[in-house]
Amino acid sequence: MCDFVSLWQGGPLFAQSEHFRLGTDSVLLADFVTAERYAKGIDLGCGSGILPLLLLVRAEKLRMTGLEINPDAARFAEANLRENGLSSRGRIVTGDIRDHRRLFASGEFDLVVSNPPYFAEGSGAVSPRGDRAAARGELLCTLEDTVSAAAYLCRTGGAFFMVHRAERLTDVLCLLRKYGLEPKKLRTVSHSAEKEPSLILIEARRGGGPGLRILPALYLRNADGSETGEILRIYHREERP
Predict the structure, then answer these.
(1) From CA 120, how far away is CA 136, in angstroms rounded?
(2) Among 59-63, 73-77, 110-114, 121-125, which stretch is predicted with the lowest mean pLDDT?
(3) Of 110, 62, 70, residue with least CA distance to 92
(4) Separation CA 81–CA 31 (nearest Å)
(5) Reduced to 3 DSSP states, what percent helix, strand and coil does the chain have, rounded to the nearest 5?
(6) Measuring CA to CA, how many Å separate 14 from each of 77, 79, 135, 177?
(7) Can you give the pLDDT at residue 18?
(8) Cβ-count burial of 115 within 10 angstroms (0-12 exposed, 13-18 middle, 19+ buried)?
């Protein structure tokens, strides 16, 4: 049974599988993606479908596919699309990212997004639950699996947007170039101005020329602990007149 809640007042309804909990990283990535520029997108490892949902709500001409290996999470993702009347523009495919060449055509999408597992095998805390361990660590899908799939699925001139741990920035940049995805925009995310970055948001272009823009940092909290104006905007918590 799906227990739907409104993501914000008047916003879309969302129910989440116990295997994949809604996190700040996915919400920040959805805001970072320039969804209105694209026609056909795919989310690699969509979990309960939060990224397709947020992008479809924002971009009326966009069509999204979610690829998810966990059948239970995929069912929630399908339910979220149905509940919000988005099934005509969104679909969920239950399958493995590593099978992307069998599931989809080369260059089928002009937008690829992903919030992949963060921790390389042997690093980071591992949950005793296999589903949650796979969501956090590279047990079923490595960073290279994600980037190589994105490169295959993204047409020339299309874009790949991803969120990852700041400590793995070198890995991310090296793999993007290895697979022909040129990094174009980078934004760091920190808890506050006094803290070092914990996340990176990155946009890469398939077949793009060199040249990386470093955007202003995104801070979650002000010095007094209150949410920054940008976070209030992203979460639709701005004060209303």
Answers:
(1) 9
(2) 121-125
(3) 70
(4) 19
(5) 30, 25, 40
(6) 9, 9, 19, 35
(7) 78
(8) buried
Spatial distance between the Cα atoms of 104 and 61, rounded to a whole number of angstroms:
21
CB 180 within 8 A of CB 207: yes
pLDDT band at 121 (very low <50, low <70, confident <90, very high): low
Could you tell me the sign of the dihedral formed by the alpha carbons of 55, 34, 136, 187, in that order?
A: negative
In the structure, what pLDDT confidence band is assigned to residue 22 with cuts at 50, 70 and 90?
A: confident
Q: CA of 66: how far to CAs of 56, 92, 96, 189, 221, in Å?
A: 12, 5, 11, 25, 31
Question: In angstroms, rounded to a whole number, what is the distance separating the alpha carbons of residues 223 and 241?
Answer: 26
Q: Tens digit of pLDDT for each residue in 199-221?
A: 999 999 999 999 999 999 999 99
Which among 164, 161, 156 has a CA at the least distance from the CA of 180?
A: 156
Distance CA 167, CA 104 (A): 32
Query: How far apart are alpha carbons 122 and 194 in whole angstroms?
Result: 30
Residue 65: Cβ within 10 Å count: 21
Report which of 43, 34, 62 is spatially closest to residue 215, judged by C-alpha positions. Answer: 34
In three-state secondary structure terms, 170 is helix
Nearest by Cα to 181 from 209, 145, 221: 209
Burial class (CB in 10 A: 0-12, 13-18, 19+), 52: buried
What CA–CA distance (Å, rounded) separates 234 from 49?
18
Q: What letter represents residue 219's amino acid?
A: Y
